[in-house]
Amino acid sequence: MGSVDQKQFSVAIIGAGLAGLSLAIGLHRRGVTSHVYDAAPKFLDIGAGLSFAVNSLKALEAVDQECYELFKKRCEGMSLKKDVYMTFRDGMGDGEPVTTLYCKGSGQQAVHRTLLVKDMTKLMPENTLHMGKKLRDITKTPAGGYILDFEDDTTEEFDVVLGADGIKSRVRQILLGEDNPDSYPKFSGEFAYRDLVPMETACEVLGEEFARNGNVNMGLGGLTTSYPVEGGSMLNLVAARDAETWDHAEWVIPSDVAKIQEEFKGYGSKIQQLISLFKDPKAFALFHHPHTSTFYSGRLAIIGDAAHAATPHQGAGCGQAFEDALILCELLSDESVRAPEDVQRALAAYDAIRRPHTLRVVETSRENGAICMMKGPTTGEDWGKIKANLDKRFEWMWRVPPVADVPILHSSSTKLSLLTLVIGTTI
Ligand SMILES: Cc1cc2nc3c(=O)[nH]c(=O)nc-3n(C[C@H](O)[C@H](O)[C@H](O)COP(=O)(O)OP(=O)(O)OC[C@H]3O[C@@H](n4cnc5c(N)ncnc54)[C@H](O)[C@@H]3O)c2cc1C
């Protein structure tokens, strides 16, 4: 299965999250048809808000203008203060500001994940999104293609398979090997309570100024993050704690306000106010993928959380997924990539461009969690050092424009050969 249009290869994408959908939409815009398979029978509303910065906007705009417009619409009216990303505060006290970070071109943007996913599915070409299809296994064909084996006992054959199946990726296990410990996510040493509350209630408790802007309250071994979502109608609440282990089989478990109060006993007044807003909290274990030796093999590759899931402390996951999608769209749609045999070269370029950058994001997100929980190895409990570190932590990630970073992607015919020069390796 899989249509071939101008290309002589067929493409399957496993997973219809933000990574898989942005990739499929971007490929479609560039004349490359793909089929997307997702395990879920339908999209469930998991009530999670995601924050973004300017690099995510630029990447999504370059992936597809229409998709970007949908996204911008959901973000309308987000922040009271222009270009303010987040204010980091002393969470052990009364929330006094330690530093405010500015992100020119976006400030703090956020969106409700499931609503954005649902919007994006409207841009998928007819009959290319297949729900209720959980990938069980992949077998290589003698011609170098792949047979996808789904849990409903059906199979499909494609020349190229791109795994966007999230942090617990089955494609990752197949790519890196089932015996390889790096195939499986690692507990980051933190978990987070999350909830969404009406902005009106949040303003009453926190004050308009605080509730309508992004804030991180830093504390000893714990922090809170709050920012408006859904055009400013809801406040996304996160309260994260460190933990030695995660002892539950499930990664998301129901919780209650009393438990959160107990966890944050002794923290400052602003954190107590924030915690009083939780109504129906869930606890999320924070896992990540700190090591990944390759993002591809043959014509099989991984993108998004399947490749580089990070802790949420730098709000980077979606932006990195969109940047992956952009680079893959540009490479796979390049006119020099026509036959199935050409694809491996494109995937090698994708790996060389994206793996070092995204693994640095995974590491910096982990470090940022430690810094904001006041246990960074070089910053500890010293607000001056914490401020100096935070002031430099985000800029490089926001200011690496995914396309400008790889200038060659502007010039399609010579894209792959010049990429070789840019990254200094032979592809
Ligand atoms: C607590 C928390 C907070 C976060 N906060 C932020 C934030 O503020 N900002 C930010 O940018 N990012 C944040 N992230 C990360 C962000 O959600 C992801 O990086 C982003 O959504 C990209 O995800 P994805 O599309 O790669 O994977 P997912 O969204 O996980 O999508 C994977 C898809 O694959 C499907 N699938 C899984 N297995 C199979 C299979 N075997 N067969 C077929 N389909 C399968 C799933 O059903 C799912 O639809 C956060 C993550 C967590 C856990």
UniProtKB/TrEMBL annotation:
Q: Which UniProt keywords apply?
A: FAD, Flavoprotein, Oxidoreductase
Q: Name one GO biological process term.
A: secondary metabolite biosynthetic process
Q: Does the keyword Signal apply?
A: no
Which Gene3D superfamilies does the entry mention?
Answer: FAD/NAD(P)-binding domain
Q: Which residues form the FAD-binding domain?
A: 10-174, 292-364
| Listed GO MF terms | FAD binding; oxidoreductase activity
Signal peptide range: none
Q: Oxidoreductase among the record's keywords?
A: yes
Report what the protein is called: FAD-binding domain-containing protein
